[in-house]
UniProtKB/TrEMBL annotation:
Domain of life of the native organism: Eukaryota
The keyword Cytoplasm is annotated on this UniProt entry: no
Protein name per Swiss-Prot or TrEMBL: Uncharacterized protein
Keywords: DNA recombination, Membrane, Transmembrane, Transmembrane helix
InterPro entries linked to this entry: DNA_brk_join_enz, Integrase-like_cat_sf, Phage_Integrase-like_Recomb
Residue ranges crossing the lipid bilayer per the database entry: 77-96
PANTHER family given in the database record: DNA ADENINE METHYLTRANSFERASE, PHAGE_INTEGRASE DOMAIN-CONTAINING PROTEIN
GO annotation, biological process: DNA integration; DNA recombination
GO molecular function, one term: DNA binding
SUPFAM superfamilies: DNA breaking-rejoining enzymes
Length: 268
């Protein structure tokens, strides 16, 4: 059992007492004894992340997009959805819960970039929304902005509908060209499955190997790892909507050369 499990269980108990209209002072999870147990669990179990996946490299992302979408006009529509989704999640540092709130009517395209207003985001405490800015890429065939434009055009999406929609997976298995979007946001199991299939086709790794190395969070951490070396930390943290610096650092994987720079600076 991890500390995260202990903490979430405490949160669930607190929520149930709120529903029962128990006052803040009488809430059992606020009792000093319970707080002491939580602190003891933190010291004993630790805060180590479980099953942390690797960040996804840019080369793998772009290779996969080109293989999935060799032509924007003739490729299966569901492949275009996957390519646009993984590209947007990688460049926008989006979680799955961010991705499902990308609405077509709240996405605006400009000559230089795309702006997507997320009506809900994990750390948006006041529910005011958050705008994600994604610049147009130097390569049109892998640019997430161009992919999203093509998706909206081909699927004829408009108004209050999700940009990244799901579909009937059983029907698409045998006739991907005929698969139709279902009008609802892609559910998490399908999102995870499609990301794994995308990476299997790109890397040639087996169905069992890919989930051990990458997950949906690999898209967010992949973009974050690259950007962290090139932009100010303030912009980096704002783009990813991290509430604290410690949360943001979890998504950055420093390469060997960067780690070696510490001891090389010692001059021994």
């Amino acid at each position: 059992m991890s500390y995260a499990v202990v903490k979430s269980a405490s949160g669930a108990i607190y929520a149930l007492h709120q529903i029962a209209l128990v006052t803040e002072e009488d809430a059992p999870t606020k009792h000093p004894l319970v707080k002491g147990v939580r602190q003891a669990a933190k010291r004993r179990i630790g805060l180590k992340l479980q099953n942390q996946k690797d960040p996804l490299d840019l080369d793998i992302l772009q290779t996969g997009i080109v293989r999935y979408v060799p032509d924007l006009e003739t490729c299966p529509l569901i492949y275009l959805v996957v390519a646009a989704m993984v590209g947007t999640m990688w460049t926008g540092f989006l979680r799955y819960k961010d991705m499902k709130f990308v609405w077509v009517e709240l996405v605006n395209f400009f000559p230089t970039h795309m702006e997507a207003l997320l009506t809900e985001r994990k750390n948006d405490q006041f529910r005011e929304g958050d705008v994600v800015y994604i610049a147009r890429g130097t390569r049109r065939d892998t640019c997430p902005v161009a992919l999203c434009e093509a998706l909206i055009s081909r699927a004829r999406l408009s108004g209050s509908v999700n940009l990244f929609q799901g579909w009937d997976g059983r029907a698409a298995r045998f006739r991907p060209l005929e698969a139709q979007l279902n009008g609802r946001h892609m559910e998490y199991p399908q999102c995870r499955r499609e990301v794994h299939k995308f990476l299997q086709r790109t890397t040639g790794m087996s169905e069992a190997e890919v989930p051990k190395k990458w997950g949906t969070q690999s898209l967010r951490s992949g973009g974050a790892t690259v950007a962290a070396r090139k932009v100010s930390f303030r912009l980096f943290q704002q783009h990813g909507a991290w509430h604290t610096a410690s949360s943001a650092h979890r998504y950055i994987l420093d390469p060997t050369e960067t780690r070696l720079s510490v001891t090389r600076a010692l001059g021994y």
